[in-house]
Amino acid sequence: MTHILSEDTLTESLEIGDDALAEITLILEMRRNFSMSIYKDKCMKRRIAIRMRSCRCLDAAAYCNLLRQNDQELDLLKKTLTIHVSQFFRNPSMFEKLQSEILPSLFQKASVAQEGLRFWSLGCAGGEEAYSLGIILQESFARELLQTPTEIRASDIDADILQAADRGEYNEDRLKDLPYSIRERYFVPNGPRVQLSADIRKMVTFHQQNIMDVETFESCQLALCRNTLIYFTRPDQEKILHGIAHILPPGGMLVLGKSETLVGDVRRLFTTICPLERIYCRL
Q: How buried is residue 225: exposed, middle or buried, by Cβ count under 10 Å (0-12/13-18/19+)?
């Protein structure tokens, strides 16, 4: 029998021991072919606790019992473990740096070489980052887009999240950093939500991809991997960064999240363009 807590006695903090984490990991691996071994234990325990509170489970043992009996909860846990919350123009100063310095340089190099450009948003979640980049291109680089074939690629491990991202429908809170003029041009009300314009949606292609499968990475000139590495262990961070370095050409750009940085010997493959915004250039 699954024990539950009433709303009044539900605590904000639920302890999840290593044994319980190992059991939940095994359940996910056997029932959903999903491995948590590449993620930091602290991050996983925090997200498991979110689901435990939602289910009002008394302890980790009760939650493990629920997972064995309830496929719906198993799917909800997997989704909670993989979702990265985002919003349009998250960290506006980084996008300003892209618009004023990074993108002009990339378009200039592509024009001289008569080559196309590919920009890649890794761990794209709801697609806000990739679409924000599309808005910048439409607003400030319309002429360059006519001369240089440009692709925005966005990838995530969660197929359901990608389907939602492709529809381009969002809650109001995802637009809180948007200037009014941008909102007016590119979004229309759609019931309780807002719909992104088709002109921007068609600029982005979404792909289901495990970020650990570095052998599947495709070449690009700009890689945005923000607020993703923090969930991974140090060895796997290095693996992902080496994979990105391998597919970036000399002069290609990498953008990390503000709480992330280059780790290990991959640092010798990049020079820092903007330490504040975590922008690096491939040597």
A: buried
